Amino acid sequence: MSHRLVACEHCDYLHVEDDIPPGFVARCIRCGSPLYQAQKGTVERPLAFAITALVLFLIANSFPILTFAMEGRTESNTLLSGVVTFWQEGFPFLAFMVALTSIAAPLMLVGAYIYVLAPLYFGFVVPGLRAVWRVLAVIRPWSMLDVFLIGLLVALTKLTDFADVIAGPAFYAVCFLIPTTLLMSTTLDPRTIWRRLAPENLRYAMLEDLEELRAGTAQEKATGWMTCETCAFVVTDSAARETGGKCPRCGTHLHHRKSGSLSRAWALLVTAVVLYIPANIFPIMTITYLGRAESDTILSGVVVLLQSGQWPIAIVVFTASIVVPIMKIVLLGWVYAATGLGLAGPLRERTLIYRVTELIGRWSMIDVFMVSILAALVKLGNIATVVPGFGAVAFCAVVILTMLSAMAFDPRLIWDRAGMQKEQGMSS
Ligand SMILES: [Zn+2]
Ligand SMILES: [Zn+2]
Prior knowledge:
By secondary structure, the protein is of the alpha+beta class. It has helices spanning 44-62, 79-88, 92-122, 129-139, 145-160, 169-186, 190-197, 207-215, 218-222, 237-242, 261-281, 298-307, 311-340, 347-360, 366-377, 390-408, 412-417, and strands at 5-7, 14-16, 25-27, 34-37, 66-70, 73-77, 164-167, 225-227, 234-236, 285-289, 292-296, 379-380, 384-388.
């Protein structure tokens, strides 16, 4: 057995790595967050999924998603046309966010997998593997094609009431792309790749190093090692001095904790709360139908869906656009406040709440995608037109700011501030 040390990314509890059966996930004994997955064979399967995803992505970007027919006129949209429409209508922020989340990030994600896994599988050498795999961790949360698909279904529901809508090849490509990219991500633990990309003579922090740390002074015990925020490599302070404060495995700058994380997290969250007001007051879009204009806010959009009897979709939109943002703001606020005050209490649950809010926040983008699709598709002058509104800008900003806030926060503070010193755990 290796006796390598593994630190929990969410609470910094140290564990000794152990072999686990394939398909199992090792969890932190203190906070319950996942530590690592059992090595699932080779890079072959994720590489195959990544190549399939790239082909589907190219189809999704080359053909129309929906074709909309009304009064003898037709209009089609592609993935890019939502971006172009936002730009032309004077909403550069929305154009940028839709381009990032539905085109650039998914493409970079799939591209990064192929760029790194293909050389590992076929055994050739290309430069910058570590840099590409490092960027992957930054891109991953911004790839939102799954959320885009739900936005597409909501747009479809709104359109079928008053026009004929035909799904194009890109629609089906997006439908298949979601499970393909999901399989690509879940069949590979990124840490497996970090092992293969590690420099030859890399020295892992071992159980013996821990004994040494234990023997040190109390000060050394509290700050004896750092965990890389990108590849979760455990670096003792003395090893970090040798590499100039950089992770010897992936090159990321090391910190004991993210600096100023609590105040940055608060600042971003408070800004989100302020913008939440215009996000709900101003219309997210204005629909002109046969010369009559009607504006929709986030809430009235849900009411319209309910009135037209679209219960399931109304519940999805209500949850994603109203329940999730409010819950996320309240729960993050509570986690930050409890951490700042150093409150004891259910720390394990607090960590779980943080992890869940970090995962679900992106689903609130459904309404933004819906507006981008409707505005790109419904452009028939006085017969039918959809124009984006300022509410969509404010709402998109709320979603992004709460995501950035959760990213800025260092969940290890939950444990530090509650008076728990870094503990040197022994189990795996
Ligand atoms: Zn933990
Ligand atoms: Zn690293």
